[in-house]
Amino acid sequence: MEYRKIKDEDNDGGTLSNDIENLRGIGFSGVASVSNVPPREQAKWKRNRTVVTVALTFLTSSQAILIVWSKRAGKYEYSVTTANFLVETLKCALSLAALARIWKSEGVTEDNRLSTTLDEVIVYPIPALLYLVKNLLQYYIFAYVDAPGYQILKNLNIISTGVLYRIILKKKLSDIQWAAFILLCAGCTTAQLNSRSDHVLQTSLPGWIMAIVMALLSGFAGVYTEAIIKKRPSRNINVQNFWLYISGMAFNAIAILIQDFDAVMNKGFFHGYSIITTLMILNHALSGIAVSMVMKYADNIVKVYSTSVAMLLTAVVSVFLFGFNLTLAFFLGATVVSVSVYLHSAGKLQR
Amino acid sequence: MEYRKIKDEDNDGGTLSNDIENLRGIGFSGVASVSNVPPREQAKWKRNRTVVTVALTFLTSSQAILIVWSKRAGKYEYSVTTANFLVETLKCALSLAALARIWKSEGVTEDNRLSTTLDEVIVYPIPALLYLVKNLLQYYIFAYVDAPGYQILKNLNIISTGVLYRIILKKKLSDIQWAAFILLCAGCTTAQLNSRSDHVLQTSLPGWIMAIVMALLSGFAGVYTEAIIKKRPSRNINVQNFWLYISGMAFNAIAILIQDFDAVMNKGFFHGYSIITTLMILNHALSGIAVSMVMKYADNIVKVYSTSVAMLLTAVVSVFLFGFNLTLAFFLGATVVSVSVYLHSAGKLQR
């Protein structure tokens, strides 16, 4: 369960409620992009975009490696809710630390002040609700598909993110970029093929519907977060993150009370923690911040490419670390994903 | 053996020596294309191109279905050399019949007269030698790879054809079209994946070298044939075919004498023939003519796409005819091939 849970958060780009903000009155079509940024800032934004994309790729990749490592080391009986709470707390602390440095050097401005309006924070629960429904569905979908089948179906997230990105954020992809996006989905799925993958074809209609609904929920949550962050391009990302994560802390505190109150009371908050748990919490916190940064300086499409490439990197690194064997399907999938990355970039020139 | 042999001819686009003509003094870079055709002829050529491409796709597809059918019906003990000879003879007869009709309606002209120069026919044995070496290597490669592995490695033909098409015919593909060609190779291989495919990764260096040499020989023979046929765009294709196929008849007659002389003498020329054998010969003859036509009106790239799509069609039709199951790998491969076909066409606009 731990493995599946973390893998899933990984694909959603954050923990249960780490990417939440008030969306009311955002007016989706008016979402800002790099072109809305003052010219003198553009070079800095482009540099930031590269740095956060690379960081997200490596953090996601090392995240999956930590998962394999923890699985090898045996099962840890810690409370997942406490770990999630600590991830949110750490992200909050890091955002505040970054802000403190900025206040010291630049002073408090309209863009970097922490205070906000009720209007800005009041609809935080909406994306949290999306994630909640999706995570609930996750328990039910296993009545229809097995775990490897679920891993395969999760690649539908790629398509749903692309479609919702187009519909909700009203951003256009060229025809070549759409072709590249279909290839990304096919390539990732191919790379994950194993002898049991064919079972997914026997999935019944309710199973497919649930998988598609989950993909849409996941894609919508990602696109929603981007809309929230892009709404105020000049607003300091650390302030935006602080408000995203403080809400995450609240939701996870409630989750501890409901799910793990007895375990925490009897065995202590940190029961079952190990060095790997600590590393995973650190990694999840940094990955979560990287996801927010990618939403700020790039977009959901870049995020999807970044996590897909991370999946391939993980497999290659696992060969050296754990003696895994790469399959022919992996090489073929990796080739298709590589061509997709190229086409996404080549397709831009056509616009 | 029969299956493998016919499958292999299929990928080579013809039997042992059906695509042979004098190449001496052709000056590869000066190869003609549609643009060299007089303007009033261009519409006709484009129509022909569509017709022969569709014909090749359906003939190749039905060829593979005949192979499955013949395998189900049991093994046929006919001599492959006599069947190949009959294929060449039938192609010759069909070319002559088409010519007779043209002579009747248009009269004999410089372009459609059958007579040729020694200079034009003398180097016929060169591509025949290429096929001979390739077919010899085919027997040795099975010391290094198993049959499913060989099917996978044969997709290297796609890449070798693209590379030789570029180098020898000096025709350019756009970057998008190159990406599409890599995808075509990856997609075809993915569609053919099965539980034993991974063995191919254990292929030793000599096995890889042989596979690459075979792919180069096969690709070179195809590109060579295109160069021969395109050298004289105004020359009637039936005349070009006649000279291609008459040489094929001669080579196959020699093959009968060497390989199957005793069997033919003792059991008769047509021993072991059945209705399926007859249909296969008919199909191979028509496919062979379609390949020549595609070389005339289109090119090797179109031929590779055509036979790749045929492979996918065959699999789909086999579901209904033979109750085959399609794998997830097939759907993924078919998706990648479809996107590749789209990109090949979309990539043209960029030039």
TrEMBL record, chains A, B:
It holds the Pfam family Nuc_sug_transp. InterPro entries: EmrE-like, Nuc_sug_transpt. It is found in: Membrane. One of its GO terms (cellular component) is Golgi membrane. It is a multi-pass membrane protein. Keywords: Membrane, Transmembrane, Transmembrane helix. The chain crosses the membrane at residues 50-69, 121-142, 176-193, 205-229, 241-258, 270-292. GO terms for molecular function: pyrimidine nucleotide-sugar transmembrane transporter activity. The keyword Membrane applies. Belongs to the nucleotide-sugar transporter family. CMP-Sialate:CMP antiporter (TC 2.A.7.12) subfamily. PANTHER family: NUCLEOTIDE-SUGAR TRANSMEMBRANE TRANSPORTER. This is CMP-sialic acid transporter 4. It comes from Gossypium darwinii.
